[in-house]
Amino acid sequence: MMPKYQLIYSVILSVGLASFCLNNATHLNISAQASELTTLVVRASSGAAYKFVASSSELARATVKTHTPWTEGVQEFSGVPLKTLLAAAGIDEKTARQSMLKARALNDYEVEIPAQDAYDYDVLVADQMNGSAMPVTEFGPFWIVYPRDEKPELQDSRFDHRWAWQLSELLIE
């Protein structure tokens, strides 16, 4: 039989080791998730795909200054025009204008958006607001933004549901 102090020491050592393993596994998992959060996947029904990394300068960037129904005052959004992302995924304008996009968010919210909006309204896939990367708690890492102040027809609630935030994937159907 093991003396009482050795048993207590063994239990403390086992709990400490288990805690260390669990904390490191959690840390690694969180790091992997954080990496995935900064990448938006744009996928075509043909199987072609493009991965857009937040704050990337690989594609031409644009800026939109506009009001939103969810924030106060004019906000400055920076990102990549949606039509540029569609082209990067191998979707030509003619095909896109006849297609629907399914925008999928991190919380599993999904909305269908006419891909034609990308060309008619210069829709932006923003990864920055007011010069800063957008954390998940503040609509990020990606947010579909319509230039509502430039086009009065966009100030209609029928367009509001298309502003998908915490965007993780765009599917072209």
Could you give the topology of this structure?
Layout: H1 4-37, E1 39-44, E2 49-53, E3 62-66, E4 75-81, H2 82-88, H3 93-97, E5 100-105, E6 110-114, H4 117-120, E7 124-129, E8 132-133, E9 143-145, H5 157-160, E10 167-172
Parallel strand pairs: 1-10
Antiparallel strand pairs: 1-2, 3-4, 4-7, 5-6, 5-10, 7-8, 7-9
The main sheet comes to: 5 strands, mixed
What class do helices, strands and sheet pairing give? alpha+beta
User: From the alpha-carbon coordinates, what is the Rg to the nearest angstrom?
Assistant: 22 Å
Oligomeric form of this entry? single chain
Percentage of residues in DSSP E strands: 25-35%
Tell the overall outline: globular
The total count of strands amounts to 10
Q: What level of helicity do the residues show?
A: 25-40%
What is the typical, i.e. mean, pLDDT?
81
Biggest β-sheet: strands ordered side by side in the sheet: 2-1-10-5-6
Order of SSEs, N→C? Answer: HEEEEHHEEHEEEHE
Unreliable spans are 5-35
* Cα distance spanning the termini: 69 Å
Number of helices, where a helix is a run of at least 4 consecutive DSSP H or I residues = 5
